[in-house]
Structures are given as C-alpha cells and as structure tokens.
Amino acid sequence: MRPGRRFIVTTTTAPAVSEIEKSTIRKICVRLVPFMALMFFINFLDRTAISFAGPNGMMEDLGLHVVQFGLASGIFFIGYILLEVPSNLALHRYGARRWLARIMVSWGIVSLLFTWVSSVEGLYTLRLLLGIAEAGFFPGAIFFLSLWVPARYRSKILSLFYIAQPLTVVFGAPLAAWLISHHGLFGLEGWRVMFLGVSVPAIVIGIVAWFYLIDKPGDAKWLTDEEKEWLTHELEQEEAAKQSHTANHSLSSVITNGRVWGLCLIYFGFVYGLYALAFFLPTIINGFQGQFNTTFGVMEKGLITGAPYLVATLVMYFWSRDVTHRGCKTWHIALPAAVGAISIPLALFMETPFMTMLTISVTASAIFAALPSFWTLPTQFLSGASAAAAVALINTLGNVAGFSAGYITGVLHDATGDYLAPMMTVGAFMLLSAILMVVLSRLRQPPSAAPREAGRQTT
Asked: Where does the UniProt entry say this protein principally localizes (predicted)?
C-alpha cells in the first residue's frame, strides 16, 4: 500500500468527549434534525407521489402508456437539474431559513395543482414545474446540516436526517393508499385526493420553517453560551484547516475538481437504483396479481411497498453507527453498491411474492446504507461557497439518473415486455458505483487539498 493521504479522509470521535460537547450535539439532534427530516419526508413523498397515483387510476384516467409514465416521472429532474447549483449558491448567500422555506412553499403549491391535472401534456408540465420548485432543497439541507456539527459527527447527523427518505415509503405508501381509498371525496378520484392530501403539509411546514429554522449556531437561543462557544470554536478550527490547505475556493475550482466529478458518477449509480425502485416498485407489485395469481387491495399494496424500506431504515441506522465508530471506510460505500448491483436483477427470478420483496429489501437496504456516508465526503475537502456548489453539483449530475431511471426503465419495459432488462441496467450502474468508489479511494489526495482532520486512512 502506497504511503500518503488517500482520497477519503475518515474521521472518528475524539478520545475524550466533554459534557458541553455531548449536550450540544444532543440538542442539535433533538431540536434541528427531526424538523429537517420532516421536511425531507414531505419532499420525497411529494416527489414520488406519482408512483402511487400511476397504478391506482391515474394511468387509466389520463391514458398513459408505461413509457409515458416513465417520462412523466423523470421529466421532474430537468428543471431540478438546471437550477440546482444556482439554488444552493442562493441559499449560501441569503441563508437557509429563508431559502428552504421558500422552496417548500413553492413545491407545495405546484404539487397541489396535480389534483386537477387532466391530460398527459398537463402532467408533463406540472412535473417539470415541480422539479423547478424543488431545486436546491436536498443539497441545501445537506449543506445546512453540515454547518451545524463538526466533521466527526456528520455521518451520525446525516444518517438521522436520511432516515426520513425510506420512512417516506414505509409510512407514505400506506398513507397514499389510505388517501386513494377515499375515492369520491370532494368529487375527486382517489388518486387526486392523494395529491391533495400530500401537498397541503408542504405549504404549512414551509411557512413554519421560516420561523423555526436558524441560519447559524451563534443565533440559537436553545444553546447555552458555553455550547455556542464550543461549537463555534470547533467549526472555525475546521474551516481554518480547510482554508489553509485549499488554495482555491471558487466555483471554477469545483467544476475542475476531478474528485467532485468522480463523486458525481458514483452518486449517479445510487440515484438510478433509488428512483427505479421508487417509481416502479408499486407497478411491479401491482403485477404480482397476474404473475403469482394473487389479489391485493389498495392498502395491502401500500403496506407491501413500504416493507422493503422499513428493513432499509433499520440497516441504514446500524450501518451508520458502524461508520461513526470506525470512521468512514471505502467498503462502507462500495460494498452496499456491489450488493445492490447483484440483488436487484435477482429479485425478478424469485418464485414467490415474499422472496421477491425480500430480495428487493436487500437492494433498498444497500442503497440507503451507503448514502449518508457518501454525503460526508464533499465537505471533507471543500468549504464555504465551494462546498455548497460541490454538493449541489454532485446532486445535480447524480440526479440526471432520476430522469434516466424513469425514462429508460419505461422504454426498456415497453421494448422487451418485462422488467428484466430495466433491472439489469440498474444493477450495472450500481456496480459501476462500487468500482469507481474503490478506484477513487486508491488515488492519492494532493497535499494542497487535504484538510487536517483527525482520523484514520481508508482501507
């Protein structure tokens, strides 16, 4: 093994943890993370609501083919991608409180309009507008949380935040099913009632966020003076270390940074798998009725859809605890990617609904185990506006997969008549992520970009 600092700098907790440190991190976990997770829960639910509406009346009412449904699912990411970096730079300039609240209210209003969509063209337009409205929320939330805790706690904080995403399906799928079952409410079809029910909370919580969120630790009234002093000192030390070891913090330095582009490609594979599952799992479950000669009600479909994500939530929690204990290792990200690559196509060869869903649970667990650890990487070697831009750029180009997953899956399904080719494609992209993670971890990090963070080298 060649000496020198590797691509990933891993961090561990300090040997001695003061009471001030414990109380500060505990308060952040209690006061800030749950609210941000609630925002993320609503965000992912509104984004993927189309996956519940599709097989429960929307495709039939609007006359959609699978490829059109895939295009409608994926077109969201066009506007999202175009405005992602500008939105995160605006967040850095104007503050998270104002910008995240604005984003949330905007997407809530657009999501509400799905209640009255009446054509394929209208569906495409609203999905495009929804992407524009949501642009910047996720990378903004990641960047915002990274500003509140020292590097050694970011895996823990981001894992707690990320739990909201699989729980969106665990609780969101039955919730969507329950709303869909209220067919006729206000004279609306069930899937329209569902859009109405999941949109209003975004507007309400967005307004609350304007008053609840705080831009920086020094303004937090729920921290004592001693806690503010400790946290500010820790964050300033980390910032100074990164500033002294990074010669250029401009946007151009981010765009020309090979490590950032490598992370973009790795994230692409994870997002492709994530959204292929999110958009088409309800449709695949709906196909069990013909494939296995079974019958499921709307609520049963919702519960079955949520089951793999419940398993994924538990796996992600314990996997992230191991990351916090050991420090982030290459295998914490590469191994789940490889497991997901193998398991997703295998699910199609299972002979019972139970074995199919068990295998899909492995895939979902693999994706969610890796993501919180992945998002600790950009802020290890970038800071300030450059870190905000890098997180946005990675999320932007990674989310090209969000469009690709929906559209390519639909095209391949219509061309072949089944989901084998689409799921093999998912497996190929996730395998590429695993390989790239190993390759990048072998690259020596230039001394000028290496932050002075305590920790062990990646193995």
From this structure: membrane
Q: Which helix (H) or strand (E) holds 332?
A: helix 330-346
| 253, 264, 275, 72 alpha-carbon torsion, rounded to 10° | 50
Interior CA angle at 434 toward 432 and 436, to 5°? 65
For residue 457, what are the β-bridge partners? 9
Q: Which two tokens stand for residue 107?
A: 């997407």
Is the domain 19-449 a CATH 3.20.20.70 member?
A: no
Nearest to 207 by CA among 321, 316, 104: 104
310 CB burial (10 A radius; 0-12, 13-18, 19+) = middle
Q: 3-36 in b/e burial notation, b at 16+ Cβ within 10 A?
A: eeebbbbbbebeeeeeeebeebbebbeeebbeeb
User: 394 with 267: CB under 8 angstroms?
Assistant: yes
Q: Model's pTM, two decimal places?
A: 0.72
For residue 373, give the nearest of 251, 458, 276 by alpha carbon: 458
Return the domain boundaries, the chain: 19-449
Determine the Cα–Cα distance for residues 310 and 167; give it in Å rounded to an integer.
7
Tens of pLDDT, residue by residue over 158-190, are 888 888 878 887 888 788 889 998 988 999 999
Asked whether the beta carbons of 179 and 267 are under 8 A apart, the reply is no
Q: What is the pLDDT of residues 100-147, one digit of tens each?
A: 999 999 999 999 999 999 999 999 999 999 999 998 898 888 888 888
Are the CB atoms for 216 and 423 separated by under 8 Å?
Answer: no
